[in-house]
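Summary for the steering committee. The consortium agreed at its last meeting that each partner would contribute one worked example illustrating the joint modelling workflow. Our contribution is presented below. We chose a case with several input lines so that the handling of multiple components could be demonstrated. No manual editing was applied between input and output; the record is shown as generated.
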Amino acid sequence: MSSLSDQHLVRGVDHAAFPTFDPVGTVRFYRDTLGFPVVHSICAAGWGPEDHPDFIHFFFDIGNDDRIAFFYYFGLPKPEVAKGDVYAQFGEETPDWFVRSRHLAIHVDGEDHLMEYRRRLDASQWPVEMQIQHETIESIYTHDPNGYMVEITRALRPVTPQEDLDANLTIDALVDIAQRPGHGMDDLLVRKAELIVERAGAWQAEQEVPR
Amino acid sequence: MTHRLFMLDVPENTQIAAVAAEAPDVTVDRLGPYFVIASDKPVVIDRRASGARHAVWYSCVGGLEGCRIVQWDKDALRLEQR
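What follows is the complete predicted structure of the assembly.
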C-alpha cells in the first residue's frame, strides 16, 4: 500500500473558475475595489471545437495562494438574467434562498479585516447587501458584476473538537436516511440521536486519554 | 416514558440548556459532549429566555429520542412524546 493512501493531501482551492461577460466590471470589482491582485492570465486563440471563441482566462489572488478565475469569451452574447447570474439563470418562481445557496465564501482573520472589506465595498458600486452573524461565523455579502454572490466571512470563535464529531454524526445520519422516500428533518434527528448514543460516550473517553 | 433531546455542548447552546433545566420536570445531564435534556412530560424552551439569536436557535437540536418537535419558531421549542 502506498504511504499516501490514507492521507488527506489536498491543499485548498487552486482556482474556482467562472465565465464573465463584463471583464471591465470584474476587474473593477476584484482588483480595484477588493484589492485582489491579478496573478495570472492566459490569452488563448479558440481551440478544440470550431465554434470555440478566442478567450482570456484571468486570475485574482484570494489569499492563501488560492485564486478565483474568469473566462472572457470574445463575441459571446451575454444571456438575459432576470434572476441568477450570467452562468445560471432562473425563473421568477425560483426562491431567492435557492439562488443564493451557491456562492463563494472567502475567509478573513477577524472583525477588523471583515469591516475593512465592508468599507471597500460600501465605497463602491457593489455595496454590502447583508451582514449576518450565523451560528459561529459572521459574514458580509454582495453580488459581483456578473451576478455571482460573494461572501466574506470571519470565525466568531475557533471550532471546537466536539463540532467535528457532531458534523460527522450529522452526515452519517443524513446518508442513512436520505434514500428513504419522504425523509425529513425529524428522520435525521431521530437517526442522529441513535448515533449519539452509540458514539458520543466513547468519543469523550478518547478525548480524555492523556496523549 | 422518558424522552431525550441531545444538544451539542458549545458556547452558543449553553444558555439554551440552562433554560431547559429550569423546568421542574426536566433533567439536563451529559453524554459525551452533548447535553441530554430528558423528561417524561412535554418540554418547552423559551427562545427569548435563552438569548439565542436566530441562527443559533434554529440549529441547536442535535438528536431526538422518543420525542418529536411540535413547535420550533421564534418563540419556543416544544417537544412531546412520540
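The two ends of chain A are 28 Å apart (CA to CA). Chain A has two domains: 15-155, 161-199.
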